[in-house]
Design brief:
Layout: H1 3-13, H2 24-29, E1 37-41, E2 43-44, E3 47-48, H3 49-58, E4 64-69, H4 74-82, E5 87-90, H5 95-105
Length: 107
């Protein structure tokens, strides 16, 4: 089981309604439902999670965004940081940290 499947199961167990998008395109399509929080991976099959974060910021959507990444590429991390995510989690994501962040943005 990959880390995001584990995360989805855990969040569902704790009562969160989890929408899943495996591509940037799918993620952008789910923004219309206005989730209270989004957890983005920077490495996606059709681009970077920064594309979704940029769209959220450009549209001034009231969505809290966390970035979860296993990359050590400083340019990629710098690009994400410039878009002001509300949190950055390095993989493997600490479950307690993630749950505390989620509770604070999606009570």
């Amino acid at each position: 089981m990959d880390s995001f499947e584990w995360m989805r199961r855990r969040l569902t167990k704790y009562g969160y309604n989890v929408e899943w998008a495996s591509t940037v395109r799918d993620g952008l399509g789910k923004l219309d439902v206005r989730p209270c929080g989004v957890i983005l991976d920077l490495a996606m099959p059709d681009g970077s999670g920064t594309n979704v974060l940029r769209e959220i910021r450009d549209r001034n959507l009231p969505i809290k965004v966390a970035v979860a990444t296993g990359t050590d590429n400083t340019a990629t991390l710098a690009e994400a940081a410039m878009l002001n995510p509300d949190a950055i989690f390095l993989k493997p994501v600490d479950a307690i940290e993630l749950m505390n962040w989620l509770k604070s943005v999606c009570p």
